[in-house]
Q: What sequence folds into this?
């Protein structure tokens, strides 16, 4: 039998894992965009044009990935359960 305290600890670590995953996703996406833009600018000697483009693409990718992670966490109720409510 599960204790309420065990369930609370499990939920804490699940939430902590999600927050950590979101943070790492944002940092890595922006960092990869920054590094890619920086090295392309050095290679082509274009100033900071690709650096800015890389950072913007990294920010966009970060928000898109966080959005997908959060959608995966919020699963809508199935159609079967809504039919049960209507039949009552």
A:
């Amino acid at each position: 039998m599960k204790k309420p305290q065990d369930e609370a600890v499990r939920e804490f670590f699940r939430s902590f894992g999600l927050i950590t995953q979101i943070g790492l996703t944002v940092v890595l996406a922006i960092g990869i965009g920054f590094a890619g833009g920086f090295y392309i600018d050095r290679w082509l000697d274009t100033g900071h044009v690709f650096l800015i483009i890389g950072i913007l693409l990294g920010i966009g990718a970060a928000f898109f990935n966080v959005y997908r992670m959060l959608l995966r966490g919020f699963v809508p109720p199935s159609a079967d359960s809504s039919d049960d409510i209507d039949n009552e």
